[in-house]
Amino acid sequence: MPRIKYATILRVLVILGLFCVWLQIMVSSGLERDGEELMNGNDTSEQVLALVPQELHKYLTVHPRNNTANSTDLPKNITEIRRAIKRYNDAQTIYNEDIYGPVLNDTVIIAIQVHTRLTYLRHLIVSLAQARDIERTLLVFSHDYYDEEINSLVRTIDFTKVMQIFYPFSIQTHPNEFPGVHPNDCPRDAKFEQAIKLKCNNALHPDLHGHYREAKYTQTKHHWWWKANRIFNQLQCTASHTGMVVFLEEDHYVAEDFLHVLNLMRTTADKTCPQCELLSLGTYLKTYQYHATADKVEITPWHSSIHNMGMVFNRTVWNSIMSLQDQFCEYDDYNWDYSLLHLSQNRKGREKFKVMMSKGPRVFHIGECGLHHKKSNCNANLVISKVQKLLQTTKHLLYPKRLTASINPGGAKHNKKLVKGNGGWGDRRDQEMCTNMTKADRQLKKYVYFA
Questions:
Q1: Model pTM greater than 0.70?
Q2: Cis upstream peptide for 179 (omega within 30°)
């Protein structure tokens, strides 16, 4: 073969190799983006819409932003966002209270932690709108990102009482200072000796894996802890509240009988498991055998990665958690649920939390993308459609008259005592801020810890 052909072939192979490298870089870059960027578009499929009542399509409709008439109402900088957050938190406005009446001591409160995944939030709202007795509840949307499109969606809810609370110490409102990313923060992967030389913030205290803090991970635990403190200790409408608080997240989806089942679970627990301090309406299963489990509950030791979805407890349990707040705030784990598990396993003179879990879940996880899920095919409709069809085909199994309880001691893995956490929470600033959140009037300090 002539030399010229060899050169041509070699050139083609080099070009193909470079193309493959470029493609790999682009794919990796795409996977690193937050999932919400990939699935927040207005791509609601006809199949999903077909299973949503026409009158609820309004919660799935994306309206173009108004860049003219209302533009002066939109916050334009961090200072204005902070002011808006303070204004809303101080007001403690309850929307639709004039229609559905005041919050009572036994009103079921549904606390929803919201970040930026708008598509999932839309479908959660649609599922809540279809729930029986939802008009008797109070929905508390807790936001760690101030966004007018999300706010407008929440304020269109007309099927029950609604309140918005805004986590005031977010990365959004503190982009260049703690608890966001301070310019002098230690790089995550800096070695201890390197951090000491750099004299970067918190150099003396990396986490148990030798890493330094990442604000996007610590924020979730801070937000959960702040939200719970806010609801139980700081809101006027819940000052005497003794009822149940249901903890949901923006990428959850509820069955229409979830409140019915919740009430049955509470009654069943009072009779068969008075030591059950927690209820769990959801579970992380790939397949659901509803015909065998729709009216079944399981009593078992509470485990963070199994029973953290649709978790329910009241003020008595919260007071028990508060009595051990130091264990929650000082435990080197950036996950709020694993921090609760550590607390549960270290209650002196008391057993680990027991939970009554609905074996036929009434809360489903529809989030395929987000903080811990980096998928390239983040199509929310696929999972949402699956859950919709499940609930439609098993509709005749919903609203059981009674629940049958079984006891499961849990396996070795289930009951394994936590020796150490997952890390990400070694920074003394995070620990101190967490502890200070129990104070209603705390102000954010200028946390700076040099080596």
A1: yes
A2: yes
